[in-house]
Amino acid sequence: MKEHLKPVLSRSLIIALLLVVQILALVLVVLRFSDRYLWYSGLSHFLALIVVFYILRDKSNPAYKLAWIIVILLLPVFGLLCYAIFGNRKLGRAASKKMEDLTARSARNYFRKNAVLPYMESTDTDGAAMSRYLENYAGYPLFRNTETKYFPSGEEYFAALTSALRKARSFIFLEYFIVAEGEMWDAILAILKEKAEAGVDVRLIYDDFGCLITLPSNYQRELARYGIKCCVFNPVMPVLNSGLNNRDHRKICVVDGNIGFTGGVNIADEYINRKRRFGHWKDIGIALSGDGVWSLTVMFLTMWSYLTGKIEPFEDFRPSVIHTVTDSFVQPYADSPLDREHVGETAYMNLVAKARQSLYIMTPYLVLDNEMRTMLVNSAKSGVDVRIITPGIPDKRFVFAVTRANYAPLIEAGVRIFEYSPGFLHAKSFVVDDKYAAVGTVNMDFRSFYLHFECGTLLYGGDVIADVKSDFTETQKMCREITAQRLAAQPWYKRLLQVFLSFFSPMM
Asked: What CATH code would you report for 93-329?
C-alpha cells in the first residue's frame, strides 16, 4: 500500500491543482471585463435568460431546474460558468447514442421471449405492473428459477463472494465503483491472478473517480501483467467538464454465468469493517443463482462493449443448462443517465405506491425531490407503517444535513425515522408488505436517480423477503428514533443551514 500511496496522492493533487488553476483563470477573465460593466452586465444577463429558457425546456427534474435557474439569475456570470461545467448531466450525444444502441441491442437480441411475466399477470397484478415497467423501459425481464441469498453485512457478502470466485471455471466479471488496495482487494486479487493464470477469462471495470485516491494511476496496466482484462470508466481528466458528473456506481460480480452478486458493497476494507472510517459500516448484498444471473451478465457485457467499442459475443457467456427451480420471481435491472428514463427512482416510486401495510427503507442518503417526498407522506397518511433508517455517523456532512432537512415533513405525516447509532449505514433496500423487496446500488438522492449508472434487483415473494425485513428489524434495534422533539431541540443555525443546503440539494 505504501509504495502506491505517493503516486496516488500525486495524481489527485495534480488534478486538483490544475482544476483550481482553470477556475482562477475563469475568474480573472471575468474581472478583466468588469471595467466595461454596462456592456458586460447586459451580455451576461442576456445569456442567462437564454440558458434559463433552455433549462425550462429540458425534461429533467423540476427541483433540479429550479435550483439552477435561481443561481443563474442571481449570479449570471458565475452561475453560467457553474452550469456549463456541472449542470449538463450527460457525457454527450455520441456517448448517449452509443449506450442507447447497445441497450436496445441487448434487449432485442439477448433476452429470449419472456413467458414469466404472463404467468405473474395471472397471479399478482401489482407485481406484474412493476415488472412490466422494468421490462419495457429498462429492457430487463422478469425471471423465475432463481435462488436468492441475502447478506446482512459486508463481511458475509465478502465470504460468499470469495468462495464463488474460487470455484470459477470459465469467466469472472467484476464491475465496481470503488476498488481500494487493502485486505479485501488483496484477497480477491490473489484469486483473480490464480484464475487468470489457469485460463479463466477475468475482467474488471472500475470507476476512475471512485478509485481516484484508492488505486495508482494506470492500474489497469498492472492488472494486464497478471492476465486480468480491465476497463476504466470515464477517466478523470484535469479539465473542467460536465462529464465528471456521470459515474459507474454499479456493484456487480458474475462467476461463470451461474452466480451473480450485487448490493451496496464495494471492494474496500471499510465495507467489511477491516478499517474504521465512520464507526461501524453497515452494508448489505444479495447473490442470485439461476436464470436471473443472465441479466447481470448482460449488464456487464453492455458496459464492457460501451467502453471498448467492441461488441462482445454475449451468448458465449450464457450457461446452456441451469438446474434451479423456484416459485418466486426476481428482476435484476440497470439504470443509465444517458437516457430520459429514471429507472431507479421510478422503481422505488412503484414500490411506495404498492405499499398497503408496511414500507421499510434503508438508505445512506435521503435527498428527496418533491414527488418522492409527497408519495412517502401520502403513504404514511394513508395508514401505511413507513419506516426509514439512515446513518448515525455521516460520510458527507453537507449531504447528511440535507438528509436531516427532509425529516420534518415526513415525521409530521407519520413516517418513523431512525439513525443507525453504531456508525455509517450504506445499505440500500426496500421491503413492502412482506411481499416485495429491492436490493441494489441506488441511493435515494439526485446523483443516483439522475447522474449515475446504477443497478438493482426487484424481488417478488420467496423467503428472501423475510430475510430483508428481518435485517431491517434487527438494524432498527441499534438505532435512535428521530422525533419531532429531537428536531425542535436542534440549534437554530443548524436548522437554517439544513434549509439552505436542501434548496441546492439537486446540485450535490
From this structure: 3.30.870.10
